[in-house]
């Protein structure tokens, strides 16, 4: 069972390792026991967190209000919940089926 990516009560729960200031936004794959996501925003004044939530909302086809950062505001390791995702990105879908 992959603990980095889980579905709980119609919510997608992700344990993320974030790489800020990347050249492009992308879901990289597994990094230890977390899902690595690279984003272009710098880790300044919460910009990386805001950008991460916006990126995940777009990838999952939901409003930004459906994405919540529940752990790791000031850390590279984060826990994010996406409520009722309309779409599950292929990289995440592959991990759900493990």
Write a concise keyword list for the protein shown above.
98 residues; alpha+beta; Conserved Hypothetical Protein Mth637, Chain: A
Give average pLDDT, whole number.
Answer: 95
**Helix-strand pattern, N to C?**
EEEEHEEH
The stretches of 5 or more residues where confidence is low (pLDDT under 50) are: none
CATH architectural designation: 2-Layer Sandwich
Number of helices: 2
Protein name: UPF0235 protein FX988_02173
Pfam family, one: DUF167
Organism: Paraglaciecola mesophila
Family: Belongs to the UPF0235 family.
Detail the topology: elements first, then pairings.
Blueprint: E1 5-8, E2 11-19, E3 26-31, E4 34-38, H1 47-60, E5 67-71, E6 77-83, H2 90-96
Parallel strand pairs: 2-4
Antiparallel strand pairs: 1-2, 2-6, 3-4, 5-6
Structure, described:
- The chain is α+β, with helices and mostly antiparallel strands and 98 residues long.
- It has one domain (5-83): YggU-like (Conserved Hypothetical Protein Mth637, Chain: A, 2-Layer Sandwich).
- It is built from 2 helices and 6 strands; from the N terminus they run E-E-E-E-H-E-E-H.
- Strands 1, 2, 3, 4, 5 and 6 form a 6-stranded mixed sheet that branches.
- Strand 1 and strand 2 (11-19) form a beta hairpin.
- The termini are close together.
């Amino acid at each position: 069972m992959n603990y980095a990516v889980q579905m709980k009560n119609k919510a997608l729960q992700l344990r993320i390792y974030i790489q800020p200031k990347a050249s492009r936004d992308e879901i990289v794959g597994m990094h230890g026991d977390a899902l690595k996501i690279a984003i272009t925003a710098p880790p300044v004044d919460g910009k990386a967190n805001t950008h991460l939530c916006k990126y995940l909302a777009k990838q999952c086809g939901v409003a930004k209000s459906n994405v919540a950062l529940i752990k790791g505001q000031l850390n590279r390791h984060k826990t994010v919940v996406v409520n009722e995702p309309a779409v599950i990105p292929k990289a995440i879908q592959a991990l759900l089926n493990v």
